[in-house]
Amino acid sequence: MNTLFPIYVKLDKIQVLLVGAGPIGLEKLQAILKNSPEANVHIVAEKVCLEVEILVNKHNRTHLSKRSFKESDLDKVDLVLVASNNRWLNAHIQYLCRTKHILLNVADKPSLCDFYLGSVVQKGNLKIGISTNGKSPTIAKRLKEFLDQLIPEEIDETLALMGQLRDSIQGDFHEKVKRLNEHTKNILENQLSARAKSDSLYDS
Ligand SMILES: C[C@@]1(CC(=O)O)C2=NC(=C\c3[nH]c(c(CCC(=O)O)c3CC(=O)O)Cc3[nH]c(c(CC(=O)O)c3CCC(=O)O)/C=C3\N/C(=C\2)[C@@H](CCC(=O)O)[C@]3(C)CC(=O)O)/[C@H]1CCC(=O)O
Ligand SMILES: NC(=O)c1ccc[n+]([C@@H]2O[C@H](COP(=O)([O-])OP(=O)(O)OC[C@H]3O[C@@H](n4cnc5c(N)ncnc54)[C@H](O)[C@@H]3O)[C@@H](O)[C@H]2O)c1
Prior knowledge:
The chain is α/β, with parallel strands linked by helices.
């Protein structure tokens, strides 16, 4: 059983610290900014790869300190990601975060993590996070690719229309929920079968 609790966090409202800016630090920064371009991210690293510098220059709410980590980097920080090659540093930051009640992810080190990053399927407003409970990130990636192919792009239009419909329905909450449920009963089946039809036309 996977007992992890999934949440979707507003990174523009909190402060993130990323320690390490090698290839794995870059992957974490890309994951953050792809989902949340307005995220507030402070990156601290002794050595910084060029791609990280480029990303930082493109996002005005990210900034970079090219130096060693120090304890005060955790001041006013809500969430920490570590992508360092230094076991002592990883353990030290874990100790500090635990003491300060700050949530921590150490890339590829499940035993040091309070939370894991998920694999993410995104279609406009729809976002699906996938976790394999740390058993197989590769399967998470494959599932992401599968769902990305399966779910039609039109789902975003549907979400926009449903948003309008939701605002326009009068009545009490239970009545609203009932009408929204009736309206959406067959919506995915319809979109998937329309998609299957157009795929088979395309194939033949
Ligand atoms: C989802 C994703 C998000 C992200 O990182 O952005 C992610 N890993 C991704 C890819 C990936 N990572 C690794 C491979 C190589 C093949 C393989 O090992 O399978 C691939 C596949 C590839 O790159 O093709 C190596 C690896 N990863 C971990 C370990 C340590 C261990 O398992 O003990 C090792 C071995 C390191 C070593 O050998 O030294 C651990 C974690 N990786 C997690 C997340 C967390 C669990 C998520 C879950 O529950 O599924 C967790 C626990 C902690 C964390 O890092 O948050 C991202 C999907 C990318 C996408 O969506 O395209
Ligand atoms: N590269 C991979 O393919 C890969 C795959 C799986 C796991 N990992 C693991 O992920 C971690 C990071 O990998 P990487 O390839 O990005 O490593 P890397 O050596 O390229 O980068 C490490 C980063 O940590 C920074 N750092 C180290 N000590 C620091 C300190 N005291 N203060 C501030 N910054 C400090 C370095 O300056 C650098 O920016 C390693 O533990 C590695 O074993 C890497």
